[in-house]
Automatic annotation (TrEMBL):
CDD domains hit by this protein: KISc
Region annotation (Disordered) ranges: 345-367, 504-542, 647-726
Name the UniProt record assigns to this protein: Kinesin-like protein
Record key words, sorted: ATP-binding, Coiled coil, Microtubule, Motor protein, Nucleotide-binding, TPR repeat
GO BP annotations, alphabetical order: microtubule-based movement
Record InterPro entries: Kinesin-like_fam, Kinesin_motor_CS, Kinesin_motor_dom, Kinesin_motor_dom_sf, P-loop_NTPase, TPR_rpt
Binding site for ATP: 98-105
Basic residues: compositionally biased ranges: 654-667
Annotated Basic and acidic residues bias: 504-540, 678-693
Repeat (TPR) residue spans along the chain: 595-628
Any GO molecular function: ATP binding
Kinesin motor domain: residues covered: 8-340
Length: 754
């Protein structure tokens, strides 16, 4: 043990005999190897494959016990050798594992007639109590017992009356050692004393009847026997422990027929066993984090699984096809556990008083006496004194103990001796093997005789500081790694959430699109429906074609006419615009001349019957003499004639005036016929031929101030013949039903029909 450094958990499988009422079959068997003795090497447990009965699963273990094996055989083969390990200062853990009613309690506790592992261990420990130390010193050896149960994931002290047993907290001390606070530990001086305490404590344990077991354990029970070996000469204490664990069985509630209370217990049992399986699995994988903290059971068993104790797992199996699946589960767990490696260490401390602590042990919560032990060992080693040799050889068993920032606190507290010091459950406490060794070596290396106390202190301080630095660096690295892992995890979560949000957005967008499409379709449908309704309505409201056709025709005609008018207006406007522009820049005299010229031209065309051209020319003339009333009338008359395709007869000149003019003309030149021919039918409007001279208006008796010789100025009335003609014409038009222009002229505030 001392030389190996690591120790794998040992497995022993035990198949219990058939109970009354159980059917015997060959589905689960123990097959012995060459060594046919009980628990002999080469044995296997064979289980038929539930899916293919022709196949058999074989599980080889170093110890396989069949239904005929005895308590004595198991104890002698697998348990008794471990007593020596305990007495060498190492912690040993034996736990019974299996489905409910597979015989765990029978194996661990047994009966009066067939005592199990626990009473046998105690008896043997008393028998084997060491009297002398390996170095020849005398030992005072004490055995102390503590007993607890984990019921529904709460810890209770079985050594106190059930009614007054409080829930006990599981704690970790400053160097990471797990213990159950306030758990009582009782020193036992004889087997009889133990039997008495134990039988009382067993009665305190939670049991209940199920379909499979009349006295089924409803809790995990852990009995610890601590052997404390004090060497008064060497002033050392060697502490070995054995933890004897009777686990509650995993349960299938269908088979157990559990009621609601049993179900709650069963859930807690199954959960803690499942965590136990996870711990073993994680250890097998070499996972960075082992989920010890997920249940009280695994927290307490931490040291037995991947810790610093020596382990033995007894797998209890029940026979028959009924338990075949449970048996396979148990054996699978055993196979995994078989690979778990522990690193046992010897637990010994130097009891000599600490001469001079170099850093505050108080600050880490332990008294100076206890915390100083580690330093004392280092100091002793550095000084080359005898005690250091013992320590060195002992602690070298632990190749990889946990590091601590407080090396002085690595030696466990004593759990013996009643209330003051023995009030803590210390089953899994381990000394700081590697740490201690490192310090020891660091401090001891340069030492030699003649070293002063100050030198020694300085060296130790230096060594401690170096170790602390290393430890700090390691922890920082660990923390950074954890932080990075956390970051990665958070990033993963963020990414996941972002993806989720994106997906949701896309889904929302799709939904929105679908909604708008639906709305559009609905809108189209609605419009379509409206259109159909409209059509329907118009069909219903439509008049008979005999009525509608003339109306529509009239409407169409009006439409065409309106359009034509508009075109005409536009054309006029355009032309007018050009003429207007020209008219704007001419002098009044030039305007008059131009106007006259247009009138003459227009008249010529009019006489030829070319009314459109004449009309055009009159209009042009109008732009130059916009205030000429006669001209306006003329335009209206011709427009009317053009529009109605009627002949246009220019109104004759008043006879009197014509005659007067002729006479005047004769008087002037004796031959003014030509000029008379050009006399304006507008009623005295004098015009010149194109390029000709303006007629001398004065000679006609018109005032110069009246442009174009407006008759109104001379005669104070209208040219009756013109008016008459136009009026007749209007009447004529009325007779034929055509629209006639009604000419009205406001003259001197008097409206006169023309
Ligand atoms: N090797 C054996 N020889 C004779 N009887 C046995 C043996 N193993 C178990 N039994 C009997 O089988 C029954 C169930 O055993 P036990 O109570 O030990 O099972 P268990 O695994 O502890 O069950 P639970 O998990 O429900 O507490 C008991 O009546 C016990 O006496």
């Amino acid at each position: 043990m001392a030389a190996s450094g690591t120790h794998k958990v040992k497995i022993a499988a035990r198949l219990r005999p058939r109970l009354d009422g159980e059917i015997v079959d060959e589905n689960i068997k123990v097959v012995h190897g060459a060594d046919s003795s009980a628990g002999g090497a080469g044995s296997t447990i064979s289980v038929t494959n539930p899916r293919d009965l022709s196949q058999v699963f074989k599980f080889p273990f170093s110890s396989c016990y069949d239904e005929n094996s005895t308590q004595e055989e198991i104890f002698r083969n697998d348990v008794e050798p471990l007593i020596d390990v305990v007495y060498s200062g190492v912690t040993v853990t034996i736990f019974a594992y299996g489905v409910t009613s597979s015989g765990k309690t029978h194996t661990m506790q047994g009966t009066r007639a067939e005592p199990g592992v626990i009473p046998r261990v105690l008896r043997t420990m008393f028998e084997k109590k060491p009297r002398t130390s390996p170095t020849g010193g005398v030992y005072r050896t004490e055995l102390a017992v503590s007993y607890m149960e984990i019921y529904k994931d709460e810890v209770y002290d079985l050594l106190v009356a059930r009614e007054s047993a409080p829930k006990l907290p599981v704690r970790e001390n400053d160097v990471g050692m797990v213990f159950v606070a306030n758990l009582s530990s009782v020193v036992v001086k004889s087997v009889e004393e133990f039997d008495q305490i134990y039988s009382q404590a067993t009665r305190n344990r939670s049991t209940g009847a199920t379909n499979l077991n009349r006295a089924s354990s409803r809790s995990h029970a852990v009995l610890t026997v601590e052997a404390r070996m004090v060497d008064d000469v060497a002033n050392t204490t060697l502490t070995g422990k054995i933890n004897l664990v009777d686990l509650a069985g995993s349960e299938n509630n269908k088979q157990t027929g559990n009621d609601s209370t049993r179900m709650a217990e069963s859930a807690a049992i199954n959960k803690s066993l499942s965590v136990l399986g996870q711990v073993v699995h994680a250890l097998n994988l070499g996972a960075p984090r082992i989920p010890y903290r997920n249940s009280k059971l695994t927290r307490i068993l931490q040291d037995a699984l991947g810790g610093q104790s020596v382990g033995l797992l007894i797998c209890n199996l029940a026979p028959g096809v009924r338990f075949r699946q449970d048996t396979l589960n148990t054996l699978n767990f055993a196979v995994r556990t078989k690979n778990v490696e522990n690193k046992p260490v010897v637990n010994e401390r130097d009891n000599r008083p600490q001469p001079k602590p170099h850093f505050s042990a108080q600050s880490v919560g332990q008294g100076p006496g206890k915390s100083a032990v580690g330093l004392q060992a280092v100091q002793a080693a550095a000084a080359g004194v005898g005690g250091g040799v013992v320590m060195k050889s002992r602690v070298s068993l632990a190749p990889a103990g946990r590091m601590s920032l407080a090396p002085g606190t690595r030696v466990p507290r004593a759990s013996f001796g009643g209330v003051g010091s023995g009030n803590h459950y210390q089953s899994f406490v381990v000394p700081g093997g590697r740490r201690l060794t490192a310090l020891h070596e660091a401090a001891a290396a340069p030492s030699g005789s003649g070293v002063t106390a100050e030198d020694l202190d300085a060296r130790i301080s230096k060594a401690v500081e170096a170790a602390v630095e290393v430890e700090v660096a390691r922890r920082l690295k660990e923390r950074e790694k954890e932080w990075q892992e956390e970051q990665r995890r958070l990033e993963g979560v963020i990414q996941e959430k972002t993806e989720e949000a994106k997906m949701n957005m896309m889904k929302e967008r799709d939904r929105e699109r679908e909604r708008s499409m639906e709305m559009r379709e609905r809108d189209m449908d609605r419009r379509e429906a409206e259109r159909s309704r409209e059509d329907e309505r118009s069909r219903e409201m439509s008049l008979p074609s005999g009525v509608l056709t003339p109306l529509l025709k009239k409407h169409r005609d009006l439409d065409v006419e309106l359009k034509e008018r508009l075109v005409e207006l536009e054309r006029k406007f355009e032309k007018g615009n050009k003429e207007t522009q020209l008219a704007d820049v001419l002098s009044p005299v030039s305007k008059k001349k131009t106007g006259r010229a247009y009138v003459a031209l227009a008249r010529a065309h009019s006489e030829k019957g070319d009314l459109s051209v004449a009309l055009d020319l009159y209009r042009k003339a109008e732009t130059y003499v916009p205030d000429n009333i006669k001209l306006k009338e003329r335009i209206i008359e011709i427009e009317w004639a053009v529009k109605n395709e009627r002949p246009y007869v220019p109104s004759p000149k008043p006879v009197k005036k014509q005659r007067q003019r002729r006479e005047k003309s004769k008087m002037r030149s004796g031959g003014g016929e030509e000029e008379n021919a050009h006399d304006d039918a507008l009623g005295g409007m004098d015009v010149e031929h194109e390029g000709g001279k303006e007629a001398a208006a004065a000679g006609h008796g018109y005032t110069n101030s009246s442009e174009f010789g407006v008759e109104l100025t001379n005669e104070g009335g209208l040219n009756s013949s013109v008016s008459k003609r136009t009026y007749d014409d209007c009447l004529e038009s009325d007779r034929v039903g055509l629209e006639t222009p009604v000419k009205k002229q406001r003259i001197g505030g008097e409206e006169v029909g023309m």
